[in-house]
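User: Please fill in residues for this 171-position structure.
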């Protein structure tokens, strides 16, 4: 039975509220652009100032797997350590807070072997301003219980990603 809705592991529901708040922020931005255009501004109204899947976003997630692509984009150097992907929680909260950060998860997040999260190549990614080295991606504790130990949920998440079906509940 693939129905695990009652497994007590539905995640933190406050993030649904955060997503609604973020949606409101984008709608406000659109309304402000519309008003500015009405007042003679040259910029047409828009919801998002960037595409959700730019090469930079893809390389942000995959720096540990294919560093050569990021190095090519950054003129042979890694980005500043504080801007590299180092914590899943920090990246998630940044996306929720900022209307200019519209990264989406990639298929690699739903694979059984998430090698892109581990610095297997021991790349010299630097130290953040807080002194912590950028190495393996820091994962929140729920990842291990919610996804790794729950193959049913993993299958549902992969299926939702594969099907791109509107309204599929993966939480």
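Assistant: Residues filled in for all 171 positions:
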């Amino acid at each position: 039975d693939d129905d695990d809705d009652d497994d007590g592991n539905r995640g933190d529901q406050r993030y649904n509220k955060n997503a609604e708040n973020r949606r409101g922020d984008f709608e406000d931005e659109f309304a402000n652009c519309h008003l500015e255009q009405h007042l003679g501004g040259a910029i047409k109204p828009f919801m998002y100032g960037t595409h959700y899947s730019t090469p930079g976003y893809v390389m942000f997630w995959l720096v540990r797997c294919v560093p050569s692509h990021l190095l090519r984009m950054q003129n042979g150097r890694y980005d500043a350590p504080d801007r590299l992907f180092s914590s899943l929680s920090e990246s998630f909260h940044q996306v929720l807070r900022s209307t200019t950060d519209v990264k989406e998860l990639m298929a690699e997040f739903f694979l059984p072997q998430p090698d892109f999260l581990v610095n297997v190549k021991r790349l010299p990614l630097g130290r953040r301003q807080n002194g912590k080295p950028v190495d393996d991606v820091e994962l929140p504790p729920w990842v291990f219980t919610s996804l790794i130990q729950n193959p049913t949920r993993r299958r549902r998440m992969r299926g939702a990603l594969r099907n791109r079906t509107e309204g599929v509940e993966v939480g």
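For context: The mean pLDDT is 76.
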